[in-house]
Write a structure and sequence with these properties.
single chain; six-stranded antiparallel beta sheet; five-stranded antiparallel beta sheet; 30 strands; Sensor_kinase/Photoreceptor; HATPase_C_sf; two-component regulatory system; nucleotide-binding
């Protein structure tokens, strides 16, 4: 601080270039309601976060950025006083002075009559500085905008103005070349923020108060709430724009009718002074003329009626009309009918399209075996289409609209999967799931796909989806899978026979030796023979796993253990074909929730294909690693490769690149991986080899 004597009535604050207090005199600390020692070293905006909405925030930054001294007025809530503030940068610090109190120059508000008016006024009365800082706000602010007076004083008027209205409001404060752009008084409309977050429309009457020198010093505003009026205006404008309404009037004893310009436009005619009644009737489609006549008679008898009919415009276009007719009397007691005519062609066309679409949807759903549903997430209500009841063989009277109760018909093994899929659908926006349900005491398999809709804040509102009963399809796939298992088992028979022949030969030899051996040798021979028996039993067990039907049981499994069993099973065939199988994997791989026999079938198909693709021998590298929330398998062979045009067709039934293959093996493999929520892909290059990439989700239990 400079060696100058400080006035006890001047607050002095010094900030460094990072907005830390480095000095606060006692008077300034008292104004802030704090102790000097507590403030030094603290960040000003952290200690007084609300100050970022006040004039000081903008002015302090301006002084630092432009290296200039600034002067402005600031309001301190704690003592309800205004101060003149100056700030100037010096040697990397900002020196701030709070000078003597200033009057608000509101003598006109000190009068008793004015005070009574302000306290009870329905409108808000404000006084702002030349720059737009609130210096006075009447008590009505709390009723209309929810703010207390102290929350507004000292804050810039733009802080509460709607972003779209700021430019218009700014115009009443801006000046160019010393001249203000707006008049000294006027009226404008703008929206102001309510404390609860919405905006309120106001009509602002403003008048600039002039200083003794004739310059604008303060701005007096009266704010009137016109929100209701604005809503009515907006609705009226929208109705005019979208409604396509026209009005008419007819005296019953006359042969003409008076139409508004809009009705002439609806009929494709140029406006006239009056329309001949016979010509007007001719524009109505003949089949509807009697209906319109009866409606007119009913209106005369009962006073009011509504009728829909069709007209043919002057250009030949057919239009749909909805007319409201009302009976009335003129000042001279003459009977007339008047009303509104509305062109509803657009609505009718949409209605017809919706009817056609609904009918087509029903036909399509019946052909495809589809039904649809809608889940109201907010109310937790689930609505099913009629086709869905028929499709799932469920009686409507036994149906519940609560999603939680619907879960009860899901197979117990699939309940967790359904709940997880629903949670993901609410977050990700889509659903694609196959699930088993129990109806009429039997198990059915359904496939559902759905999309989620959200509100403007991103909250899920509704899930709409389709359901297809794929029970028969799944049964067919299972039959194909079992057939393929038997086919694989048959192909493995030769290799297994060779594998079994070796231990059988050993068993025969040791059986003969035991006839002439001593007791010690017999025991050793018996142990060797027992190991060979165990070897045969293991091989036969693996063959039976492939041949017999398995009960599906998805459990967390160690995929490396499964791979090793398959490699051991196929190793004989690989050796015969001069193929070396090399398995490498990362440590601490997660478990995979799977059906082990099905994964074995996939691995057998992939490895056998790789061996057969290398008739002259080669290396088969199997790499397993963790990727994100999945376990990835790479089977890389050095075979003949697959041409680019054939790759997309792998997995199609009866499509194969082998001379005696059926193509069912990979079709079944694709289906198994899909059921495990995984992914399988082929990459290949002729003469180089093929890589099969399989990806399976890691088990959350693992």
């Amino acid at each position: 601080m400079a060696n100058e004597k400080e006035s006890t009535m001047i607050g002095v604050i010094i900030l460094d270039d990072r907005w830390h207090y480095t000095y606060v005199n006692e008077y300034a600390a008292a104004l802030l309601g704090r102790c000097s020692a507590d403030l030094v070293g603290k960040v000003i905006w952290a200690e007084f976060p609300l100050a970022m909405r006040y004039a000081c925030y903008e002015q302090f930054h301006k002084s630092f950025q432009h290296n200039t001294e600034v002067y402005f007025e600031e309001y301190i809530q704690s003592i309800n006083q205004w101060f003149q503030v100056s700030a100037y940068p010096f040697e990397g610090h900002l020196h701030i002075r709070l000078h003597k109190q200033i009057s608000m120059e509101m003598s006109f508000l000190q009068e008793r009559t004015a005070q009574m008016y302000i306290e009870h006024a329905q409108d808000i009365i404000t006084l702002t500085t030349r720059d737009g800082i609130f210096r006075y706000v009447s008590p009505a602010i709390q009723r209309l905008l929810g703010f207390e007076v102290d929350e507004i004083l000292g804050i810039h008027i733009f802080a509460y103005c709607h972003p779209e209205d700021i430019e218009a409001l700014r115009g009443s404060f801006m000046e160019e070349d010393g001249l203000f752009l707006n008049n000294d008084q006027g009226i404008m409309t703008c929206r102001f923020l309510h404390k609860n977050g919405w905006y309120v429309w106001f009509e602002m009457n403003y008048k600039w108060m002039l200083s003794e020198e004739g310059e604008r010093s303060q701005k007096l505003c009266i704010w009137r709430d016109i929100t209701e009026r604005k809503l009515v205006e907006e609705r009226f404008v929208q109705a005019q724009r979208l409604g396509q309404f026209g009005s008419f009037e007819r005296e019953l004893t006359k042969n003409y009718i008076l139409w508004s310009d809009e009705i002439y436009r609806i009929h494709g005619l140029a406006p006239q002074e009056q329309m001949n009644l016979r010509d007007a009737i001719q524009l109505i489609v003949p089949e509807d003329r009697e209906k319109v006549g009866l409606a007119l008679e009913k209106a005369v008898r009962q006073g009011k009626v509504e009728v829909e009919y069709r007209i043919t415009r002057a250009d030949g276009e057919l239009r749909y009309i909805k007319t409201q007719i009302e009976r009335s009397r003129t000042d001279s007691n003459r009977l007339i009918v008047r009303g509104l005519m509305h062109d509803i062609t657009g609505h009718k066309l949409i209605e017809e399209e919706l009817k056609k679409s609904k009918a087509n949807l029903q036909i399509s759903q019946e052909i495809a075996g589809l039904g649809h549903y809608s889940w109201d997430v907010i109310r937790n209500e689930l609505q099913w289409s009629d086709e869905l009841f028929t499709l799932l063989h469920i009686q409507r009277d036994s149906y519940t609209s609560q999603m939680d109760l619907f879960i009860h018909i899901v197979h117990s093994d699939d309940i967790l999967k359904v709940k997880e899929a629903l949670r993901e659908a609410l977050q990700a926006g889509s659903l694609d799931m196959t699930v088993r349900i129990i109806v009429d005491g039997g198990i059915r398999t359904i496939h559902t796909m759905a999309k989620t809709t959200y509100d403007e804040w991103g909250r899920p509102l509704r899930v709409f989806g389709t359901v297809q009963d794929i029970t028969l399809q799944k049964q067919t796939e299972e039959l194909l899978r079992r057939t393929e298992k038997l086919n694989v088992a048959g192909q493995l028979a030769a290799g297994i026979a060779h594998e079994i022949r070796n231990p059988l030969t050993a068993l025969k030899g040791f059986a003969k030796l035991m006839c002439h051996a001593n007791e010690e040798s017999k025991l050793r021979y018996f142990q060797i023979m027992q190991e060979e028996f165990n070897r045969i039993e293991l091989i036969l067990g693996e063959l039976l796993i492939l041949a017999k039907p398995q009960v599906l049981a998805y459990q967390p499994h160690d995929v490396i253990a499964i791979l090793r069993e398959v490699i051991e099973l196929l190793n004989t065939e690989a050796i015969i074909s001069n193929v070396i199988i090399d398995l490498t994997y990362e440590p601490d791989l997660p478990l995979v929730r799977s059906e082990s026999s099905q994964l074995k079938q996939v691995f057998i198909n992939v490895i056998k294909n790789a061996i057969e693709a290398m008739p002259t021998g080669g290396n088969l590298r199997i790499i397993v690693r963790k990727t994100a929330n999945h376990v990835a398998f790479f089977f890389e062979d050095q075979g003949q490769g697959i041409s680019e045009e054939r790759l997309p067709r792998i997995g199609e039934p009866f499509y194969t690149t082998k001379e005696k293959g059926t193509g069912l093996g990979m079709m079944v493999s694709f289906a198994i991986i899909d059921e495990h929520q995984g992914h399988i892909a082929y990459q290949s290059k002729l003469g180089v080899g093929t890589t099969v990439h399989i990806q399976l989700p890691a088990s959350v239990e693992g």
